[in-house]
């Protein structure tokens, strides 16, 4: 059962105005459903929009920020709880430990890295948590196409595509995460016998 959602998102607002609007809608849905937000602790970008909206709707927000890594003015000082950690590795581990599910909003290299790490860990069975893409204005469609290409080229098994769920709106995505049933996977290495 999903109680806390870890959100990965851009530290910028992005080029399309719907990114900000949908980030706010995600925050509203998180609070409305009585869920808690876990995220990187910044007050700027899409990250800040989600956090501010959860807080504005009376929800709980837990930020996880490495001490001294970012300028002080980027740290959100109005959170329900701010956890300071020593580095990025501890940040991601802490966010994962605190969360029951993951959502990736549009973002850049950092968002991609966080997303692919949790997908890789799910593939290896390190965690069983659902992972969702909020595919605002088709932002993640090229990524989903890349995964299809990786399947066609024999680097990802067809069944492993089910590790990710995707939706164009927050309400649907939260429902999909709550209903998620992890499929049973066999051996991921095709050269080894099942």
UniProtKB/TrEMBL annotation:
EC class (word): hydrolase
Keyword Hydrolase: yes
Alphabetically ordered keywords of this record: Cytokinin biosynthesis, Hydrolase
InterPro entries assigned: LOG (IPR005269), LOG_fam (IPR031100)
Biological process according to GO: cytokinin biosynthetic process
PANTHER family tied to this protein: LOG FAMILY PROTEIN YJL055W
Protein's recorded name: Cytokinin riboside 5'-monophosphate phosphoribohydrolase
Source organism: Alicyclobacillus macrosporangiidus
UniProt lineage: Bacteria, Bacillati, Bacillota, Bacilli, Bacillales
């Amino acid at each position: 059962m999903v109680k806390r959602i870890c959100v990965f998102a851009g530290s910028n607002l992005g080029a399309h105005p719907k990114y900000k609007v949908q980030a706010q809608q995600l925050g509203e849905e998180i609070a409305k459903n009585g869920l808690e937000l876990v995220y990187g602790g910044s007050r700027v970008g899409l990250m800040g929009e989600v956090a501010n909206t959860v807080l504005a709707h009376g929800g709980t927000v837990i930020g996880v920020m490495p001490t001294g890594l970012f300028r002080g003015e980027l740290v959100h000082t109005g959170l329900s709880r701010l956890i300071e950690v020593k580095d990025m590795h501890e940040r991601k581990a802490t966010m994962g430990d605190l969360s029951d599910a993951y959502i990736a909003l549009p973002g850049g290299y950092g968002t991609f890295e966080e997303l692919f790490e949790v997908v890789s860990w799910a593939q290896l069975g390190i965690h069983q948590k659902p992972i969702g893409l909020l595919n605002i204005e088709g932002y993640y469609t090229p990524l989903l196409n890349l995964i299809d290409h990786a399947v066609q080229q024999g680097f990802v098994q067809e069944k492993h595509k089910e590790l990710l769920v995707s939706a164009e709106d927050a309400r649907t995505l939260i429902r999909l995460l709550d209903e998620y049933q992890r499929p049973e996977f066999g051996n991921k290495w095709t050269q080894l016998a099942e």
